[in-house]
Amino acid sequence: MDENFEELLKNILLIENNVKELSVKLVDLEKQYNLIIKDTDKLQENINTLNQQNKDLKQRVIELNLEKELIENQINFLKEKRISYENEKKDIQAKIVLEINQRDLRCTEEFEIEYLKLISDFDIDFKQMSEQYKQKLVKSKLEILNHLEKDTQKLENLKNLNTELRNLIREHQQLAESEANLSKERESLENKEKMLKNEAKSINIPNNLNSNLVDDDHEIKVLKNELNELVEKTDHDELLKLSKKYRYLFNQLNERKNN
């Protein structure tokens, strides 16, 4: 009896343990069930969203089909209109070609009439025009020859003037060099005169030598006067003449260049 009771207790304990385990599993299953319900709700929401999107897409497809039909209708209308325009274009081109041909025919007839008239007038006036042209040509040639002769003469005169001007410049340079040399000689003589006077003052000169020194002094003064006259003459006469001649030739050269 006790053994049965113990066995029963053991079984009860096992059952309790099993119940506890099952309770825990049941709790886990409830949690999983709740999660599944939540996921199911989300899926249902997604399904509803997808269904709505599907409806929207179907509506959009319907709208696009309508737009496509409208566009196709417009394309067909434009094609018909283009065909109509092409036919009108062909008609206009045909009219233009016909008008051009008619105008060409009229212009050709008018040209032939005017051409025949011009030919007849040309035959009449050809000799007179030829004579006038020959006369004008001869006159033009003579004028050109005269002009060339004048230009040639001007060039020759200009060459001569340039040559004369070069010679004048050369002479002017030579005179300037001569003037410089004379100035140097005069300065040298003046220095010698000063040196002689200083020597005469510093030395006791005998009477016979004093007379010779007076003669030398007089000779120096004569040479100095001649030198001054030569320089003055060169400055005032020759240089003035050459300067005037140079200005005259330079003015002539400028006038010929301007002409």
From TrEMBL:
Q: Which residues form a coiled coil?
A: 5-95, 148-233
Question: Which keywords has UniProt assigned to this entry?
Answer: Coiled coil
The superkingdom of the source organism is: Eukaryota
**Gene3D superfamilies xref list:** arf6 gtpase in complex with a specific effector, jip4
Instruction: Report if keyword Coiled coil is assigned.
Output: yes
Q: What is the protein named? A: Uncharacterized protein
